[in-house]
Write a structure and sequence with these properties.
The chain is an alpha/beta fold and about 230 residues long. It has a single domain, classed as 3-Layer(aba) Sandwich (Rossmann fold). The protein contains 5 helices and 11 strands; from the N terminus they run βαββαβαββββαβββα. The strands form 2 sheets. A 9-stranded mixed β-sheet has the order 2-1-3-4-11-10-9-6-7, sandwiched between helices. The protein has a two-stranded antiparallel sheet with strand order 5-8. α1 packs across α5. The longest helix has 13 residues.
Length: about 230
C-alpha cells in the first residue's frame, strides 16, 4: 500500500508521518502542495505543522493549495484521508469535516501526552481500536479548540461521528471534549493529537510498562493498511 504525505510550507511533522507509515508496513510517498499529482497513492496524510505560518486562519491557505483540489476529489470518492493537528485544521477549512478550530481557551501553546477515549471504530483509520478503548497520544497545539454550533454538535454525537474524546483534562477548550472526528463515509478522519509520535518503542509516551514505550499511534496506520487488504 502506498500512502501519500503532503508537505506544505511550514509542515513540521511530514517526515514523522512518513516514518509512521513505513513502520506500519506501507510505502510512504512524499507529495508536494504545489502540484496536482497524487502519484497513484492509496491513502493520504495531511501532517502537523504551521502551514503558511498559520496566517489568516490555521489551515485556511493550505486548504486552497493546488494539491488540495485532488485531495478533496479523492476524499469524496472514498480514498482514506487522515488530518493530524494542522492537517485536521486543513480538513475543516476544506469542508471535508465540519466545525472550526480556534485558539486554546487558556491562550497558551500546550504540549502533553494526552489520554483519549476511542468513540468510533467505523473508519479507515480507527478500525483497529475498540470502542471505549483508552489510548495515549502526544498533543501539541496553540489553536486546537474545536467549535461548532449546537445543531452540528448534536448531529456529530447522534450520528457517531465523534472519533476521539479527551480524557482527564480538556487541553484546549474543545466543545464536548472532542479531540477528533470522522466523516459519514468513514474514510476521512481528523484529530488534534499526533499519532505519528507514538509509533516506536523508546520514542513514544510513557506507559506503566516502561518510559517512552507508548505505541498507540501505530494503530491508525495499521488500520488503514488492514482496510486496504480486506477491500
Amino acid at each position: 500500500m502506498r500512502i501519500g504525505v503532503v508537505t506544505f510550507p511550514g509542515s513540521l511533522d511530514d517526515r514523522d508521518a512518513q516514518r509512521a507509515v513505513r513502520l506500519a508496513g506501507a510505502e510512504p510517498v512524499a507529495l508536494w502542495h504545489g502540484t496536482h499529482d497524487l502519484q497513484g497513492v492509496d491513502a493520504i496524510v495531511l501532517p502537523g505543522g504551521f502551514s503558511y505560518g498559520d496566517y489568516l486562519r490555521c489551515g485556511a491557505i493550505a486548504a486552497r493549495s493546488p494539491i488540495m483540489a485532488e485531495v478533496i476529489d479523492a476524499a469524496n470518492s472514498g480514498m482514506p484521508v487522515l488530518g493530524i493537528c494542522n492537517g485536521f485544521q486543513i480538513l475543516v477549512e476544506a469542508h471535508l469535516l465540519p466545525g472550526g478550530l480556534i485558539r486554546n481557551d487558556h491562550g497558551d501553546f500546550i504540549r502533553r501526552d494526552q489520554r483519549l477515549r476511542v468513540e468510533s471504530t467505523d473508519s479507515a483509520w480507527t478500525n483497529g481500536f475498540t470502542v471505549g478503548q483508552e489510548i495515549t497520544i502526544p498533543l501539541k497545539n496553540g489553536e486546537g479548540g474545536f467549535i461548532a454550533d449546537e445543531e452540528t454538535l448534536d448531529r456529530l454525537e447522534g450520528e457517531g461521528l465523534v472519533a476521539f474524546r479527551y480524557l482527564d483534562v480538556n487541553p484546549n477548550g474543545s466543545l464536548r471534549d472532542i479531540a477528533g472526528l470522522r466523516n459519514e463515509r468513514g474514510n476521512v478522519v481528523g484529530l488534534m493529537p499526533h499519532p505519528e509520535h507514538a509509533v516506536e518503542p523508546g520514542f513514544g509516551p510513557n506507559t506503566p510498562a516502561a518510559m517512552r514505550s507508548g505505541v498507540d499511534g501505530l494503530t491508525f496506520f495499521t488500520s488503514v493498511i488492514k482496510q486496504s487488504v480486506l477491500s
